[in-house]
Amino acid sequence: MYVVRKEYEFLGIRFKNRVGLAAGFDKNAKYLGELSALGFGFIEIGTVTPKPQAGNDKPRLFRLIEDESVINRMGFNNDGLDVIVKRLQLRPKDLIVGGNIGKNKVTPNEEAVNDYKICFDKLYDVVDYFVVNVSSPNTPNLRELQDKKPLGEILKALIEMRSAFISTGKICKPILLKIAPDLGNEQLDDVVDIVNETGIDGIVATNTTISRAGLLTSKEKVESIGSGGLSGKILSDRATEVVAYIHKKSSGKIPIIGVGGIYSAKTAHDKINAGADLVQVYSGFIYGGPQMIKNIAKAL
Ligand SMILES: Cc1cc2nc3c(=O)[nH]c(=O)nc-3n(C[C@H](O)[C@H](O)[C@H](O)COP(=O)(O)O)c2cc1C
Asked: What tens digit of pLDDT does each residue of 42-57 get?
């Protein structure tokens, strides 16, 4: 077992290589050592919510094999903040870990900011960077938090908390925002404005899509699966488009982690060429396994 070392500096952090494991795979921070040994340069845990929650009823994860894609409606199943923080206190120290944070299903959107603040506070000392997840399609109405007003409120609150931490001598931990591939250009313009206004550090583009366009899998099968976020090969081009749009609109000034449909060195390069600094993989890892991760890490 060896880890591909292609060191890369991003947001003041040194990464072993530029390929990370996207959020949702190790939701509970249980397998960090093992996943690191499979070749990932960094691992994003979560989405973590303040209280533990079971997520949606099973079945909730479906492979679309012909499309090398996946539909999931997991619904933020996780062990909850306190258990995950305890685990992270014992984590391998030579590994970069991101903390992806969200809100509990029972928390109304008007109070969502509190859930993000609680997660940010308790995770601050045990992760290396944060991702604010307002883009999962599987928590009802969550994506409405991508609108300018609620999003601005959440991000400003976290930036204020971070300033307070820094004033007590803690180091600055980057805050990124994870966005949906289903946002239109006007909404993406708003996202760029909000990043600039709040001073957060970057964007993770993208989460899963609610679109079902272009699939080879039969309509009947897709309909029988039902709701959920679609990821994998089918998402590749749209996610790259979103990366390119944000990169261009911000004149290259917003740091970006590119994710969505990466399954080869070529598709990873597409994200980098569109303006991403780092990439993450989830569905491609399900189909391609560890060898693919090493191939991509070596190629970048
Ligand atoms: C089963 C599954 C669970 C996921 N859970 C989360 C999650 O909890 N939080 C999150 O931000 N993204 C989650 N995602 C989205 C991925 O992190 C990623 O953004 C998306 O799948 C696109 O990448 P891919 O095409 O490489 O899978 C999940 C994806 C899958 C397939």
From this structure: 999 999 999 999 999 9
> What mean pLDDT is predicted for residues 162-190?
97
pLDDT tens digits, one per residue of 201-214: 999 999 999 999 99
Q: Give the distance (Å) from ligand 1 centre to CA of residue 145.
A: 18
Is 136 known to be catalytic? yes
Distance 42 CA to ligand 1 centre (A): 15
pTM above 0.90, yes or no: yes
- Ordered strands of the 229-232 beta sheet: 61-64, 69-72, 229-232
Residue 3 scores a pLDDT above 90: no
- Residue 233 burial (10 A CB sphere; 0-12, 13-18, 19+): buried
CB–CB of 140/105 below 8 Å?
yes
Cis status of the peptide bond prior to 206, with omega within 30 of 0 = yes
Q: Where are the domains of the chain?
A: 8-299
Give the domain 8-299 fold: TIM Barrel (3.20.20)
Interatomic CA distance for residues 255 and 201, integer angstroms: 7
Query: Mutation test of ligand 1: which of 134, 210, 231, 236 has the most ligand atoms closer than 8 Å to its C-beta?
Result: 231
Q: What is the pLDDT of residue 6?
A: 83
